[in-house]
Amino acid sequence: MRIPNVWTRDIVKTTKNGPKTYTYWMATWREGGKTRNVHLGSCAKMGAEEALQKARKMKAEALGISPSE
What we know:
Layout: E1 5-15, E2 18-31, E3 34-42, H1 48-63
Antiparallel strand pairs: 1-2, 2-3
């Protein structure tokens, strides 16, 4: 199994005090000829290694294989 591509995405939300930027971990992999983008969680609550492990687990479940393959 190939390692999923893990990246960050900035989302700007408008609050009563003005715009605020939030950063989230995202992962990308191919499923049946299509690209799947998955939201993993907030960068403030999760580090890069934890995001990669979560992406590997989610990809394995989506493809129906064990994570160690």
